[in-house]
Amino acid sequence: MNTLTRRVATVATTGALLLGGAVATASTASAATVGAGACTHQIRLNTDVYTTVKFRTGPGTGYTATGQLSRGTDVYWQCNKGDNGKPGAWGYVTVKSGAHKGKKGWVAAQYINVPMQLD
């Protein structure tokens, strides 16, 4: 858990305790960043995104979108995470150009230009 996520969880917990309420931590789970350790298949491919796509903290729509990658944004696709046993549903990428250059995160693999069949 990164420092910001810990701070948010601590503030939420403190506020709830002061008000006498219970704390639900499930909402902070989507803010946590899931890295390359969640990958199921290695890809290692320099490519780009072919349409505007949300850039997320984890491999799924339940994770926080930290921004959008515009069409043509260059990415280094490190690996992917399958969905229901199929490889390729989500790609873990390092952004190589644009507003999020240098950041790592997840995008739906269907929006990455891929010169191969994934499933």
Automatic annotation (TrEMBL):
InterPro entries: SH3-like_bac-type. Keywords: Signal. It comes from the Bacteria. Residues 52-112 form the SH3b domain. Residues 1-31 form the signal peptide. Pfam families: SH3_3. This is SH3 domain-containing protein. It comes from Streptomyces lavendulocolor.
